[in-house]
Structure formats: structure tokens, C-alpha cells
Amino acid sequence: MTPDLLLALLGFTFATSVTPGPNNMMLLASGVNFGLRRTVPHILGVCTGHAFLVLMTGLGLSGLFRAVPQAIVVLKVVSVIYMLWLAWKIAHAAAPRPGVAGGKPFTYLQAAAFQWVNPKAWAMAMGAISAYAGDGGFGAVLTIAVVFAAVNLPSVSLWAALGEVVRHWLQSPARLRAFNWTMAALLVVSLIPVLRI
């Protein structure tokens, strides 16, 4: 991969990783509800899970979707149903009571698996492979996956850290409830581009 192409890839990965989407809305909510330290497995699951999705997309899944367009429709339906369920869970998350654990953050494996039903993650993976892999083979695909993992880590960590920062302001149950409902609504809104495609 040429230096110019690598620079363009870095810009693409940063722009797509740091902007709002399902992962970032969930990480922000996790930072608020559980703090940054307890959200670290979720962050790592997003980064490595998405890098693996990019790698698999480059190694043939994008070809499968071109050959069987109905698979994209099935993926969208499953993704929308799962995201609506997650939005409902976020909206109804209760504030932790003193001495009582108020739910659990995503585990590493849950966050990694979530990438497979995250429409933005698929769009990022397919867009990057289409634009930057060319005919470079495995080396180019692996480079794209590694760049995504490296850029994703600080980008998505910002959202969880922001959640930690506003967490103290949200100690009020009413504020936390309003925040969780807002995050749930934003998660649903993030589905609009998927429904248009």
C-alpha cells in the first residue's frame, strides 16, 4: 500500500470510527452507567471484533454479498431487530442503587459479536475493502484490518471516556433515565441510513 493510500485509509478509518453510530452510542451509555474501567472489555471487543469483520469481508464476504444480494436484506432485518432490542434495554436500564449492581456492561465477546449485526460496522468494512484493498491480496486486507483496530481504539475510547465525564452529572435518577432514553433514541436514529439503503 502506497503512503498516499495509507494516509487516505487513516482518514477514512478515523472519520468512520469517531463519528456517532451504534458502537459509540453504546460505549457512551456504558461509560455513564458503568464507568470507563468496567467498559474496557467492551472497547476492546469493538476494536478487535471490527478488525476481524474487516478481515473476513476482505477475504470473501463482500463477494458473497455481491453474489447473493438477498443476504444483505437478511442481515439488515436481523440487525434492525437486534438494535431495537438493544435500544429498549438501554432505555429501561435502571440506575444502580447503593450496594446493588445495576446491570452489567457488554463483555469482550458480546462486543466483538455485536459487530456482525452492526450496520455501520458492515458499511465501514465493505467501504474500506472496496476503496483501499484493490488487488493487493491478503497483505492489503490485513493492513486495512490492522489500521482499523489501531484507529478504532482511541476513537471509540473517547466515547466511553465522555460517558465517564458526564457520569457524575447523571447521578440523579431522573437525569440518568433521560440520558438512557436519549441514547436509546439515538441508537434507533442511527438505523435510518440502513433502512434507506
Observed structural traits:
single chain; 197 residues; mainly alpha; 9 helices
Protein described:
The chain has helices at residues 3-18, 22-34, 36-67, 70-91, 108-114, 119-133, 137-167, 173-189, 192-196. 80% of the residues lie in helices and 0% in strands. It has one domain. The longest helix has 32 residues, at 36-67. The chain is an all-alpha fold and 197 residues long. The model has no long low-confidence stretch (mean pLDDT 83). The protein contains nine helices and no strands.
Please identify the structural class as seen in this structure: mainly alpha
Task: Write down the Rg.
Answer: 17 Å
Query: How much of the polypeptide forms β-strand, as a percent range?
Result: under 5%
Secondary structure: number of strands: 0
**What kind of sheet is the major sheet?**
none
**Envelope shape:** globular
Low-pLDDT residue spans: none
Write the layout of secondary structure elements.
Layout: H1 3-18, H2 22-34, H3 36-67, H4 70-91, H5 108-114, H6 119-133, H7 137-167, H8 173-189, H9 192-196
Helix pairs in contact: 1-7, 2-3, 2-7, 2-8, 3-5, 3-6, 3-7, 4-8, 6-7
Short description:
With 197 residues, the protein is an all-alpha fold. Helices cover 80% and strands 0% of the residues. The protein has nine helices and no strands.
